[in-house]
# Entry
Amino acid sequence: MKTKTGRILPLTLKSLLSKPATVAYPANRENIVTELRGRLTHDIELCVGCTACMRDCPAGAIEIEKIADKRYKAIYHMDRCIFCAQCVDSCPKDALQCTNDFELAALDRTGMTFEM
# Structure
């Protein structure tokens, strides 16, 4: 029966001689998937104001406000969003879409609320 040290030593030597599993991000930006759930976009022309996205959002990141007859605006709190895309799935008119924009870090939360 081998000791724990005897089992770890071959794995350690193997990992020392193999390539690293990580990439040099952000210098090397490869293999960014197209189905990424990043920043939301909102097509106001398709929005009917049903508030399904607002009701289904687990983080409360979307607010829909009526601005005129059959005209609505969406307020997106990106600092609350967990990027689950539940709002995109629940929109009956496909007014919400996820983009591939995922580099969204900021030093201040005040600039992370958008009117769409």
Observations:
- The chain has three helices and five strands.
- The chain has a mean pLDDT of 84.
- Residues 42-101 form a domain with the Alpha-Beta Plaits fold (CATH 3.30.70.3270).
- Residues 20 and 113 are 38 Å apart (CA to CA).
